[in-house]
Amino acid sequence: MPSSDEPEAPLVLVADTDSSVAGALAGTLAAAGFRVDEVLDGPALLEFCAATPPDLVLLDVRFSIEGGVAACRSIRELPGGRAPAIVMLHGADDDDWIQPACEAGALEFLAKPVHEALLRHRVARALAWASEQAADSPAAQSGQRASGKRIHGEPLVDATEFLELASKSIPAARADGKHVAILAIDLDFECRDGSARSDLHPARIEDYVSSEVPGRIRRAVLQFEEMELPGPACGEILVGRIAPTRFAVLLPDLDRVQDAAKLGTRILEVLEPAVVIDGRDTRPSVSIGIASFPTDGDGARDLIDMAETAAYCARQEGRGNLQFYTASMSRWAFERLTLENSLRQALEREEFLVYYQPRLELPSRRVVGFEALIRWKHPQLGMVSPAQFIPLAEETGLIVPIGKWVLRTACMQARLWQKRGFQPIRMSVNLSAVQFHQPSIVDDVNGILAEVGYDPSWLELELTESMLMNDVDSTIDRLKSLKRSGIQLSIDDFGTGYSSLSYLKRFPIDSLKIDQSFVRDVTSSPDDAAIATSIILMGHSLKLNVVAEGVEDESQLAFLQVLKCNEVQGYLFSPPVPPEQAERFLTVLTEPDSSPADVALAATPHRRGGEE
Questions:
Q1: Is-contact 26 38, C-beta < 8 A?
Q2: Tens digits of residue pLDDT in 13-42
Q3: CATH superfamily of 340-603
Q4: Which of 204, 419, 581, 610 has its CA 20 to 30 A from that of 574?
Q5: Nearest to residue 12, comparing CAs of 48, 41, 36, 31?
């Protein structure tokens, strides 16, 4: 019995329908010096809390018929008195309850079977939090924020508060010889039917990020604490929202910074599964960067920036990646961000160009069309490789306005040639996956054709195999709509994807373009020769036009001619060239006594192996 001068031990109420579990938990807590009682059903729980308000309730998530979340809410709504702290118990199979439990008033969570040291630590910590709240007074809330503890009903801190609390964690870690790690979590969203994030309503994304993501991150933190930090010495793990789709996690006193990657992996596991947003099957794309004290720096602001840089670099490696910060990342990220900023202004500053590469018919070698290819002439960097800026344009969504500009420019150029009296030839334009899956793509294309006054029968749109395989039924409908407008369709880079006759027969296409990787070694590699041969035969069996890309020498051309490939393009005839040089090929069509091949070869400097 404590003396009259000693404070009474906190009263803990264990609420679990399994009497053996309740007894074991009660025994552990009693041995730790707590006053303990047990209840096994819902009515007894509420009756006990109303008559003898406990300091803390240890409550199973499956407690009674109503469930632990409902019981938690009922306890918090009891009239009069002080609401107890509530720690929820859960099993390995329990799911989708953490966020509702937080909203109902739970402060902490424990997985069963419960580690004895972790049980004592969590109960003590929850009691400390409840004591600091002091009936939710403004003064107590201010003090709690300064100490880094979460306020009831406020599971996250904002960017300013996160920075403040991260700054306070570094001196303590320095004194204890510990590490501080900051995880930056970057979220993006991909519709599983291949359509763009821009198709999702921003308000629906915000609803998901606000209501679901914090609970999922909290679940990962709980799993990490229970599996990796079972002892009572672990510090407060802080979660903050630092931007609309970016979160950060502070690990303030790690013995090993490598353990931060374990938490990062758990966060990826809980955030990556597909969800429904705005009525569409959507998969979050998550990238995580990690920076730490003292390895990477000793300022909280710098560590947050480094973690975000690492997350940015992780995103470039594809979805679901995690990377630790390295010094070389800053330079790389700076260059990439600089390029992205320049790309956003390139259209407005008229820095883009369209080059044209001729397509020749076999065996006549007459020019029958051009492929339009974008080029970027940066005022400081010069000509920027499409391999650099096209992926960046797709990531940022800039490919949509850029793609429209290319289509409009190519159609205007072809129309200009026609007005000048040149014979009409087909203009081929590439569509990116982001463009093609825009709901407005058919209207966009038809609108540009009408605006320019270009005959749809002379336009060919090139699409890749992979972009056609997302939501095949919707893809077929979109292709048929384009075909009804009179537009020609081709599959670019054929042979690198599915190459299945069964699906190819379903698509209303006109041409196949053999990927240049198979043409390059067609005379020296039996495998490439077999692939090229099978594509040509397949195309002919389906009555499709077959085009070979990347033709660089006469031996390749001879091979393709024997197999009766319909058309070729490549550096043997010309690289992509500006419109004034491309026009020389059109002159050939009006001079029947001239040799098309000779004029083509003379039209531009003869270069090989460049980008198309």
A1: yes
A2: 999 888 888 889 999 999 888 999 999 888
A3: EAL domain (3.20.20.450)
A4: 419
A5: 36
